[in-house]
Amino acid sequence: MWQRSLFWLGWLSLLVPGYFISYGFTVVGSLVLSGGNETVDLVLVLIMGTALLELLLIAIYTLTRFWFQEASFGRLALWLVLGAAGIPLAALLGCVYAYAQLALSV
Prior knowledge:
Low-confidence stretches: none
Mean pLDDT: 94
Structural class: mainly alpha
Number of strands: 0
Number of helices: 4
Shape: elongated
Largest sheet: none
Distance between the termini: 56 Å
Strand content: under 5%
Number of domains: 1
């Protein structure tokens, strides 16, 4: 019973980084759609869009594996930690690096 509660808590925690990444994606994406053709904006949209897609795929993967009991709890917990912490951290570092390389080196 505690594993089920812990899984759902972890699965719902994917919504927090998903919210922030989607907010950044929409803000920078609106700049791109309104005519901003700077390379840094396009790269940031691609990084955040990819991170959002990865979060969605991890959420679907863990939900289906949990629902049909095809994976152990430990493996699902590792996937949820990767989705809640690893993907947002990688996206943040990628965005900071891209911004530093493309915008600050002008």
